[in-house]
Amino acid sequence: MHSFLVTELEDGVLIGCSLNHTTADGESFWHFFNSWSELNAGHETISRPPLMERAQIPKELHQVHFPLAQAISRIKAKANKRSKLQRGEISSLQALVGLMWRTITWARKLQGDQITACKVAAGLQKRLDPTLPWEYFGSCMLFLSTEAKVGDLLGQDLGWAARALHETVLRETANMGWQWLMNIQLYDVNGFESNDVMVASSPWLEMYGSDFGWGKGLAVLSGSANKFDGRISGMDLEVCLLPHVMAALELDEELLDALLPSY
Known about the structure:
Helix content: 25-40%
CATH architecture: 2-Layer Sandwich
CATH superfamily: Chloramphenicol acetyltransferase-like domain
Number of domains: 1
Number of helices: 8
Strand content: 15-25%
Largest sheet: 5 strands, mixed
Radius of gyration: 20 Å
Distance between the termini: 46 Å
Structural class: alpha/beta
CATH topology: Chloramphenicol Acetyltransferase
Shape: globular
C-alpha cells in the first residue's frame, strides 16, 4: 500500500509518504519523490522518466563491484589505520557503522558470550556489472549481516569492527549476479534480534533534491515503521534506541571522541 499526506503548518509544509519496500528501494523512492516535486513546481515533464520495462535489464550480470566512498572523516582514517587491510580500504560508511555498532552494543550492557549482528541494507543497482539503468524503478537491494560475539566486538578496536563489515560486503557481493535477481526473497523482520543493529538508507540517495516550489527541504525523518530499537537511518544520522540505551550511548567515550575530539 502506498499513501501520501500533505499537512500545511504555520511555518512550512510537511509531506508524509509510505511505500511498500517490495515495490521500490530507496533510490527508486527518491526518484519518484523528486519527479513529483518537479511536476508540482510547474514543470510539464519530469527530467528522468522511470524505466518500467524489465526486458531492458541485462540478462547476463557478472561480478559485483563495491564502490568505496570518498575519504571524508577522521573516523575513516582511524578505521583504515587500525584495520590493516591487505587490499582495498575501509569506506566512510563502514567506519561509521562499525563505530555505531560498537558503541550501541556497549550501551546495551550485553554479556561477552552473547551474539550481536550488524545488518546493513545494500543497494545493488550500481554494484551489478553491468549496472542497471539509472532510471530503473523497483527494489534491488538486500541486507548484509555481520555477526560477532559481544566480547570480541568490544574487546577489539574500531578497525576490527570496520574490517568485519568490509569483509562481509566483499564476501556476499563477490559472486552475485542475474541469478540473485531471479530468486528474490522477502526480508523476514522477525529475524531482527534485540542485540542487533540495522542500518538502512544511504548518503547517496537524492534526499534533498526535491523542490515543490516551496523551497528546499529542511530535514528528512523516518516514519514509525522505521523506528525501533537498534535502527540507524541514513547518514544524517538518525539513531533509534530504547531510552536507557540512548542515555548510556551519550556517555560513551569512543563515540564522544569521534564526534567531539576536544570534549
